[in-house]
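Re: Re: token formats

Sure, here are both.
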Amino acid sequence: MKTVVITGASTGIGRAAAEHLASKGWRVFAGVRKHSDGEPLKQASGNITPLILDVAKPDQVKAAVETVSKALSGKTLDGLVNNAGIAMMGPLALQPLDEIERHFDVNVFGLMRATQTFLPLLGMDEQRDGSPGRIVNITSVGGRLSSPFLGAYAATKHAVEALTDSLRRELVVYGIDAIAIGPGSVKTPIWDKAEDINKNQPYQNSVWAQPIETFAEVMLQGGRDGLEPKVIGETIEKALSSETPKARYAPVPNKLTNWIIPTRLPKRWLDGIFWKRFGLERQD
């Protein structure tokens, strides 16, 4: 039985991936921040073991590694899926720095904390038996395309793209692969959480008040009409299991208009599209 660790598995992509991989015979250690979040996962499958794992807390990451190491009994870990992440809307000119730092604490430094701490289990400890494991980092369309009002989130996902490429090019000496999955809109609670924050209208007295409201409506509707989380779970399985995995997967709804064309347009053209769509114009 292959073993995988998934961070941020309480809801959305992480939970869907845990349940999908468990249904395919994987032993899944699912990272959650509260014991109550782990109960539905245990009930979903006997192959899922919840782990209290907040990637921003070093002591919890260390404890999780010790638990998984004991369960592996000297064998290698087959996969680490870095999925934990947060997203909060706001114009970069006004968004509090501690809020921006929080994005990096979870989405970037938390990802690297988990990666570095689990790497011995994935194969850097050459005393372990078994083939080297794989790292799968969940990034986003925002890892390549930066929209207004999600600058902090996009910056972290750009960082994850770079870290994934560097890890893959470095860890080849141990046979450990690193793969990025950059989904488009997915039906997950992350945008509902963003909506709750935006309801307080922290920027209502700024020139960005109406554009942010328009942007939030578009993003939230996109999320509700997006891909089912199970689709990303299936992509994760492919990344972990394929004999010749891609370096990056892009499961994006309406892929031509939401990914292929925007990634090929000149940036100034994209600027104009964003400005027009969200009512951004020079204030005289």
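Second one below.
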Amino acid sequence: MGLDIRVFKNLKVVENPQLDEYGDVENWETEWRPGGSMEWSEEHFPGRGEGLEPQNVYTWEESFRFRAGSYTGYGWWRRKLEEFKGGTAFQELINFADNEGAIGPVVSKKLATDFKENAEEAREFAKTLGDAGEVWLELYDEWKAAFEMASENGAVEFC
């Protein structure tokens, strides 16, 4: 088990989505509903989903997925991110769930800026991590791309 990430760009509300008897999206390959996962994350991390509505069903222009790691691996990566710039950047990601939820376009834009502005320094920091530095930097670049895409009226879903 681990943390998988889905990223969306240019979300648009689907006016009459097809839902199954449980209220889940039937056309899951082309439609997405933040739903209960986002409701939970908004309860525990208010404001992270700004720009999204959990009950809406969305379609998107572009999307991609990546594996953020096992839960232990992602925890390590996030602790190193906090060690790198904790307190001055990335707080909306560092202080967020590691298993579910959604970050909307407003917070994604802020995080995209954090990742972009600190990219060169992150490369230097990765060198201090020995053999693990390459893995840490690869994930840094994945998250950077995710928040850049999601900052364009999109979202980052933790699943």
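The mean pLDDT is 96. The longest strand covers residues 62-70.
- S.
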